[in-house]
Design brief:
Strand order of the largest sheet: 1-5-4-2-3
Number of strands: 5
CATH class of the largest domain: Alpha Beta
Order of helices and strands: HEHEHEHEHEH
Number of domains: 2
Helix content: 40-55%
Radius of gyration: 19 Å
Shape: globular
Distance between the termini: 57 Å
Largest sheet: 5 strands, parallel
CATH superfamily of the largest domain: Rhodanese-like domain
Number of helices: 6
Length: 136
């Protein structure tokens, strides 16, 4: 085996190992409780891999009616403090809005009330839509 073939085999092996490690890290993310900010692609993975995940849309009714993530419940951020009893502190909750601003406010409200299992889709549904992810 020449040096160039040996180098090629090593490079292919390293790439394969890195790909396997990346796959395991992604799977671990979806299995673990890494609460906090998530990208839209991580949110999509959570929705697919975490049964029982509550999806909370904190936009307005008209924004929700235009397009929302399937299964999302609507509690506009302005109503959230009075409606927190509609949510369970035991559930993992994915929170989103249009761009991440209102959902950030919602996360603060929830944390102040003792919620700790919160995933914040900080890029908002505008990026979700630009990525071609599904809505209803």
């Amino acid at each position: 085996m020449g040096v160039s073939k040996r180098t090629s085999v090593i490079v292919v092996g390293v790439v394969a190992v890195l790909a396997i490690l990346a796959a395991f890290n992604t799977q671990d993310f979806f299995r673990s409780d890494n609460y906090g900010d998530v990208t839209v692609n991580e949110a999509w993975g959570l929705i697919q891999n975490k049964p029982g995940l509550v999806i909370l849309d904190v936009r307005t009714q008209s924004e929700y009616d235009e397009a929302h993530i399937e299964g999302a419940i609507l509690i506009p951020v302005q109503e959230l403090p009075e409606r927190l009893d509609e949510l369970s502190k035991n559930d993992g909750i994915l929170v989103y809005c249009r761009t991440g601003n209102r959902s950030s406010t919602a996360v603060g409200i929830m944390e102040d009330d003792g919620f700790s299992k919160i995933y914040h889709m900080n890029q908002g549904i505008s990026v979700w839509l630009s990525e071609g992810l599904p809505v209803v």
